């Protein structure tokens, strides 16, 4: 039986797009008789907002998405992150990088995708781990990308991402002395026994990076499913320009959770029309096969229809 996870970030409020991905992730695990863990991804300490973590937990419970055990706060796993970094240093799979974002951007020779930074030109790649002791300015740790592991996605099928063209050597430890997303997520999922990861398709290129880390650290990777995002009527990911789509705002406006879950279930092809339903009602209907491959367009009319009369 799978062990899935929900991993909200307290850098802002959870919106309808987050809710859709959480619903799919929850159903993927529960429909197979599995468990669900909850991790608050708070390593971006300078971006965290007061009370956002508690609000995220309240949003999940309001939606009817339960979880097993107590919530885990990612920042408390720092010793495990540090141990993983030390192992990567020992293996000479990482090197200290003093390049700034502007340095990398100015050296980039080709445009990059919306969700990708410019490809790292390898300016600091000749350094060894020991060279960090001689540096007199801030530096990050970059992982040496040797190949681009393909993987079979539970939603997308076989996926191949050329990491040499999609960012190159990537940061695993920031100059702020905190782990970067790729390392923290891989270490935390392995520590929690997570065997199934369902997340937005904007993170597809993260998976081969994390597979490299799993392999380097001798960890067993989970399966992955990357599902389409929710976008506004202009085709762009949800933001303030699309109105207030925060789950907390819908709750405050008197929207019933069953109404929102029903809309999301319809968007995934599990219902013929939007109608009130609970996540548990959807367990026998869950399948990845009916979820459209394109993003779900959330219209103002759909949000209005959620509101109590």
Overview of this protein structure:
The chain has 309 residues and is of the alpha/beta class. It has 2 domains: 3-70 and 228-306, Rossmann fold, CATH 3.40.50; 77-186, HUPs (Rossmann fold). It has 9 helices and 12 strands. Strands 1-2-3 form a 3-stranded parallel sheet, covered by helices on one side. The longest helix has 15 residues, at 16-30. The chain is elongated. The model is unreliable at 108-113 (pLDDT under 50).
Question: Quick recap of the structure?
Answer:
With 309 residues, this protein is α/β, with parallel strands linked by helices. 30% of the residues lie in helices and 14% in strands.
CATH architecture of the largest domain: 3-Layer(aba) Sandwich
Q: Tell the overall outline.
A: elongated
Q: Unreliable segments (pLDDT under 50, ≥5 consecutive)?
A: 108-113
Which sheet architecture does the biggest sheet show? 3 strands, parallel
Write the CATH homologous superfamily of the largest domain.
HUPs
Kindly identify the CATH topology of the largest domain: Rossmann fold
- Which strand order do you get reading across the main beta sheet? 1-2-3
Give, in order, the helices and strands.
EHEHEHEHEEEEHEHEEHHEH
Radius of gyration: 20 Å
Helical coverage, percent range: 25-40%
Total number of helices: 9
DSSP strand count: 12
**Gap from first CA to last CA:** 42 Å
Strand content: 5-15%
Q: Mind telling me the CATH class of the largest domain?
A: Alpha Beta
Structural class: alpha/beta
Mean pLDDT, all residues? 92
Total individual domains: 2
